Amino acid sequence: MSATVSMLRSAPRTAVRSYSSSSQPQRKVTILGAAGGIGQPLSLLMKLNPLVSSLSLYDIAGTPGVATDVSHVNTLAQVLGFAGEEQLGKALEGSDLVIIPAGVPRKPGMTRDDLFNINAGIVKSLSAAIAKFCPNALVNMISNPVNSTVPIAAEVFKKAGMFNEKKLFGVTTLDVVRAKTFYAGKANAEASEVDVPVVGGHAGTTILPLFSQVTLKSKTLSDEEIKALTKRTQDGGTEVVEAKAGKGSATLSMAYAGAIFADACLKGLNGVPDVVECSFVQSSVTELPFFASKVRLGKNGVEEVLGLGPLSDHENQGLQSLIPELKASMEKGIKFAKES
Predict the structure, then answer these.
(1) Which of 45, 185, 191, 309 is most deeply packed, by most CB within 10 A?
(2) pLDDT tens digit sequence for 154-173
(3) Which domain, by its residues, includes 76?
(4) Is residue 86 included in any domain, yes or no?
(5) Is 72 considered catalytic here?
(6) What's the CATH code of the domain at 150?
(7) In 134-251, which ranges are continuous DSSP H helix?
(8) How far is CA 245 from the centre of its chain?
(9) Which residues bind substrate per the record (predicted)?
(10) What is the pTM of this model?
């Protein structure tokens, strides 16, 4: 048994299920922002994924070194690095899945909204390139603020005449990962035994973990404990930013979450049945045009956007209170895309 396989088999069950090793179609995955704090560990994790046959790493600079480093890992995927805008098209051509962690990270005292003016422009230009060079690819948006960057990408794709709502995803998996981890810690349970849907958006109070639907029923937490876990999940990014004391944001856990969701998308493309993850997608679950909820993935991307299910009183209150902020973030993204 190889060291890589041994490592993955001894990892938590979520990681093991993500890196299955059966024979699969050839799939090209491109990471835009591959030399950054999220991009580098995400590149390594995607290199470990046997569903990836070609891994294309792009950034404005530094990517040849990252690509060379990652290419030495003895797994299936062939790795190429591309740097600078003149190589963006070549990086994207033929992609089945494009993952976008590009942009600046959060710093102490900075909200996701503070990131907007910088990251919105980056996402808009990258989305235009995707529309031109790989219009049929699935797009996984990690760049924050996701509540705004997903609508920006959608508007760019609409302008290019190639928008397909089934193929654009805001990656909210880190909220799910945190909710599972925090609940398991409080319930003194194995994190791999816990599943918690997280709905709404991907910033602060727009993040709504549905702890009433947790799969683990062996221990019931009090209302106060649930409220504290909800707030900790909503503030998870800030917790990391503060712990790193100005020297970074949630890069490693975000890379892990991004790899989990990308793997689910690849499994869906390959026809694996009943692949369900939470994601921020075009939706009719609420009156808002985009919303995060459980999504069934398939060969065309989104096969079905699932409903919210029964909510507790606390969750219903959270749902009503998040809608105005989430709506404003979406409208800000749409306005930027149309006016800039």
Answers:
(1) 45
(2) 999 999 999 999 999 999 99
(3) 28-172
(4) yes
(5) no
(6) 3.40.50.720
(7) 146-159, 173-187, 223-234, 236-243
(8) 24
(9) 106, 112, 144, 178
(10) 0.92
